[in-house]
Specification:
9-stranded mixed β-sheet, 5-stranded parallel β-sheet, 16 helices, alpha/beta
Length: 475
């Protein structure tokens, strides 16, 4: 398997349309009497970088340095976006426009499902991008002298209305250019090394209509690549994976996502990983393979969230099962990005529908859900001889395959209190007939500023009842 190299000495420049992604999350327990729409009781608000800002945050999350050029309004959203980027370690060079509103997307979600999106933006206005003489883009030309790659992230908001000068400047400095285009004509980016359109963007730029068959797809790709004057075209095809088209031929890679949960920001992830990998000295084919793996991780997550170096390289993360030491590091990274950490624990012996509903509800309380399970010896001490029914390794793998579960870890003590103290989750969750004041680790979590929640399980759904039915042949 292709491994990402150390990127600590790598510098990538990103220029494009930045935006702020805002999330309102909460429980949707009833339908409004005013209209046939769900009522969401908002429990939390999460802010994340979007668009080109998400690309920049993704590059830093991989261990590289990143300088970002973009435009925002002179407003509160612009200030919040800049602070998010600074906190993530991005070198920001944002132009402020007093009469321009920062592009903001508000998503309302419940239990990990997006219910509504509201976009706050003005009509696109071309933003001048002089490569010489004046303004922060003179600084862009200077920054390119120390860069190993340039990413142009085009969301058709005005920043890249005329990108020819940027591409030409990069070429004179022998800096590869990776373009994530949202609209045609792609010839605007003539001279770039790689274009990374998705299937919808590709079809629109290659004449519209429908793609008749695979031969039509290949012919369109060849014609589009030659007309655009680029070395390679990397087509992201959703469930069909990725296809790389170059003068030397074609490389197809199957999709790696176990389950597509949210495609938001997947294209940003591909651009970030591709650029960082190429800047780090990887071949185009290897960089594409790594980007495909990263895309699979991205769409299995909720919302715009950077794929980190550990996502791609740490052992055991392919199926979400992770050792405690590695988990502590992952939680620290997530918390630094402002993500809300949810923790639950249990034996989870013979997973049933009640468990699944409970875990999906728990996942909706934050951005990252940790499920800690008792080791086999611990289960035996707690439940008696004959338990567990399934080994910890099997229980962990099943749990890691569930939508909304980010990390699964195993603890050998009878209670997870020591692990809870190490992780300090924002929300500690238990299900069933627990009382809040009886939840193990609850007092500790509250003392650290977190909250404790008790969620119900489906009536009649329990491991004991299921085991009894199996024994009676009535499962």
């Amino acid at each position: 398997m292709v491994a990402l190299p150390d990127l600590s000495a790598v510098h990538v420049v990103v220029c494009g349309d930045v935006m702020l992604d805002r999330y309102f999350t909460g429980a949707a327990g009833r339908i409004s009497p005013e209209a046939p729409v769900p009522v969401v009781r908002v429990d939390a608000e999460v802010l994340r970088p979007g668009g080109a800002a998400n690309v920049a945050a993704g590059i830093v999350a991989l261990g590289a340095r990143c300088t970002l050029f973009g435009a925002v309004g002179d407003d509160a959203d612009g200030l919040q976006l800049e602070q998010l980027l600074l906190d993530a370690g991005v070198d920001c060079r944002l132009q402020r426009y007093p009469r321009r509103r920062t592009v903001t997307k508000l998503r309302v979600t419940s239990r990990g499902q997006q219910l509504l999106r509201l976009d706050f933006e003005d009509d696109p206005v071309p933003v001048p991008v002089p490569v010489s003489a004046i303004g922060p883009h003179r600084a862009l030309a200077d920054v390119l002298s120390s860069a190993h790659a340039l990413v142009l992230s085009d969301y058709a908001k005005g920043m890249l209305a005329d990108p020819a000068g940027l591409v030409a400047e990069a070429r004179t400095r022998h800096v590869p250019v990776i373009v994530d285009p949202k609209r045609g004509p792609f010839a605007r980016f003539r001279g770039a090394q790689v274009l990374t359109p998705n299937l919808h963007e590709f079809v629109a730029a290659s004449g519209g209509g429908t793609i008749a068959d695979d031969a039509d797809l290949a012919a369109r790709a060849r014609s589009l690549r030659e007309a655009a004057g680029v070395e390679a075209l990397l087509l992201t095809r959703g469930a069909a994976g990725m296809s790389l088209f170059t003068e030397d031929g074609r490389l197809d890679l199957p999709a790696e996502a176990r389950e597509v949960f949210d495609v938001t920001g997947a294209g940003d992830t591909v651009a970030a990983v591709l650029a960082a990998a190429l800047a780090g000295g990887m071949s185009l084919e290897s960089a594409v393979e790594l980007s495909n793996r990263a895309a699979g991780i991205a769409v299995a997550q909720t919302g715009t969230r950077p794929v980190t170096f550990h996502d791609l390289t740490a052992s055991g993360l392919a199926d979400g099962v992770i050792a405690q030491d590695a988990l502590v590091a992952r939680v620290a990274e997530a918390r630094a990005r402002g993500e809300r950490i949810v923790f639950t624990n249990g034996c989870f012996d013979l997973l049933h529908a009640g468990h699944v509903s409970y875990l999906q509800e728990a996942a909706g309380l934050g951005e990252r859900l940790i499920v800690a399970i008792n080791g086999d010896a611990s289960v035996k001490r707690l439940k008696g001889e004959g338990r567990p029914y399934a080994k910890a390794t099997d229980r962990a793998r099943v749990l890691a395959g569930l939508r909304g579960v980010d990390w699964v870890t195993v603890f050998e003590d009878d209670t997870p209190e020591a692990l809870i103290e190490r992780l300090a989750p924002d929300v500690l969750v238990k299900g069933g007939d627990y009382r809040i004041d009886g939840v193990v680790g609850g007092a500790l979590v509250r003392r650290l500023g977190g909250e404790v929640r008790v969620l119900g399980l489906q009536p009649g759904r329990s491991t004991t009842a299921l085991a009894a039915r199996v024994r009676e042949g009535d499962a």
